[in-house]
Write a structure and sequence with these properties.
The protein is about 20% helix and about 40% strand. By secondary structure, it is of the alpha+beta class. The chain has two domains: about 210 residues, PmbA/TldD fold (2-Layer Sandwich), CATH 3.30.2290; about 130 residues, no CATH class. Strand 4 and strand 5 form a beta hairpin. Helix 1 crosses helix 2. The longest helix is centred in the first third of the chain and has 17 residues. The two termini are about 35 Å apart.
């Protein structure tokens, strides 16, 4: 199946250049995004669907100056050919002329050395990316049927090529591969359920036999069912759950909101908490566009302006950024505009996230083996914000909460609703494990490039029992 294809064989670069040639305003930014996506889906040990989708989106950002300042207008369309470009540019310029001056107005980014791959065609994926994985998946279906288990899930792979050009002469291009696999394993009567997931760039590192072995092991743990009340128990959060909590914290770490007194990172009396210690442990939270296996777009691509991004920053280079270092808050998400307001460095949003501790020596397995009594989670879901000033979050556990006694998993307990702030947890961590590439559960529709450790929290707040399974 193929959808969203652009008619004809017009190159995206030609569409971009044609849009710039039609511009009559003071400045113009054009962003073309070519994407292709392949997917597999299965249920009850049977492959159900597979397909490939393709599409193009074109965004034109026009800027128009007046005696009052510079205004911007943004218009985006899908499946744009050359014949629609002039009208799209005109619509963006009309929007700019009818808008008030932009608070974040700034000079457009000046060109550096053009990207050497600018003239290259967009990259594409296909179902062939699943060749080895699909063969192993078939073997897992056979094993699951023989053992009275059922597998449900999907695998997706996307390749997106972005072309960004401006009237200043800037020309940037980047390819972004994004892949993930999620698998839920159930007992034949559906009384037991568990989940595994993995992010990947190309599926060459996805080992289906290992994923299936982990599903089998956790379903075995769940053969014994134990009821436990809610409370504050020592809890081991696996890397997936840690990623979910840290991603929400990262999304909330916007300098403008903090400076305006509207977030957990606001300093009482005004300003931000940058420079304040959040954890006594030597922890680091950082992003890096060039991180091996987690590579992401190395320049700003903004289709709109807001507290966390500015269309005027399009094309701004992104470098490695420490958000927390040595337990101390080091930076918040900044545009050029918010950096001028806060007096801090320009630190744009980066599309990956990593967390580590300098004193980490053990992985999750060793942490379990050293637990006298505690809970081991599989994943979190339905995470929602309760209070932005403390970043208090609520949510549910999902697909397996296990009781650990004397270093052994002794059974599965009921699910819980939790109430916790990831910022508060940073100050209470009793152990941080070794960092590993992971896929979050709740937010993986939006954020797949993470590397996080397991956390040991001495008093994780399970506020009530949940009967959801």
């Amino acid at each position: 199946m193929s959808t969203g294809a652009v008619t004809g064989t017009v190159r995206p670069q030609d569409v971009v250049e044609h849009a710039l040639a039609q511009a009559t305003g003071d400045g113009c930014i054009v962003i073309a995004r070519e994407s292709s996506e392949a997917n597999l889906r299965w249920a009850g040990n049977t492959l159900t669907t597979n397909g490939v989708m393709r599409g193009r989106q074109l965004t034109v950002i026009a800027t128009v100056g007046s005696g009052e300042g510079v205004a911007s207008g943004v218009v985006s369309r899908s499946n744009v050919g050359l014949e629609q470009v002039e009208a799209l540019v005109q619509a963006a310029e009309d929007a700019a002329r009818s808008s008030r001056p932009a608070e974040d107005a700034a000079a457009l980014i000046e060109p550096g050395t053009p990207d050497p791959e600018w003239d290259a065609p967009p990259s594409e994926t296909s179902v062939e990316v699943f060749t080895d994985f699909a063969a192993d998946l078939g073997d897992s279906f056979l094993a699951a049927r023989a053992e009275g288990r059922e597998l449900f899930g999907f695998a997706e792979h996307q390749l997106a090529t972005t072309y960004l050009a401006t009237s200043t002469g800037l020309r940037r291009r980047t390819d972004q591969p994004t892949g993930r696999v999620e698998i839920t394993g159930k007992s034949s009567d559906w009384s037991r359920s568990t989940w595994v997931g993995q992010g990947t760039r190309d599926f060459s590192d996805v080992a289906m036999p290992q994923l299936d072995a982990e599903l089998r092991r956790r379903l075995g743990w769940a053969e014994r069912q134990i009821d436990l009340p809610a409370g504050r128990d020592e809890t081991l959060l696996p890397p997936s759950s840690v990623a979910d909590l840290l991603i929400y914290q990262y999304w909330s770490s916007i300098a403008r909101d903090a400076n305006d007194g509207r977030s957990v990172f606001s300093r009482p009396g005004g300003g931000t908490r940058v420079g304040e210690r959040l954890s006594e442990r030597p922890v680091r939270l950082w992003s890096d566009p060039s991180a091996a296996g987690l590579e992401c777009t190395p320049f700003v691509v903004a289709n709109s302006s807001g507290a966390a991004e500015s269309v005027f920053d399009n094309g701004l280079p992104i470098s490695s950024t420490d958000w927390i270092t040595g337990g101390e808050l080091a930076a918040l998400i900044q545009t050029r505009h918010s950096a001028a307001l806060t007096g801090l460095a320009v630190t744009p949003f980066v599309d990956n996230l990593m967390f580590s501790a300098a004193d980490a020596t053990r992985g999750l397995e060793e942490m379990v083996a050293d637990t006298a009594r505690g809970l081991l989670l599989t994943s979190l879901w339905y995470i929602r914000e309760v209070d932005p000033e403390t970043l208090l979050l609520t949510g549910l556990t999902r697909d397996g909460v296990y009781l650990v006694e004397d270093g052994e998993v002794v059974g599965e307990v009921n699910n819980f609703r939790f109430n916790e702030s990831p910022v508060d947890i940073l100050g209470r961590l009793s152990e941080v494990g070794l960092t590993e590439r992971t896929l979050c559960r709740e937010w993986n529709d939006y954020f797949t490039r993470t590397a996080t450790p397991a956390w040991r929290v001495p008093d994780f707040n399970m506020s009530s029992v949940s009967r959801a399974r």
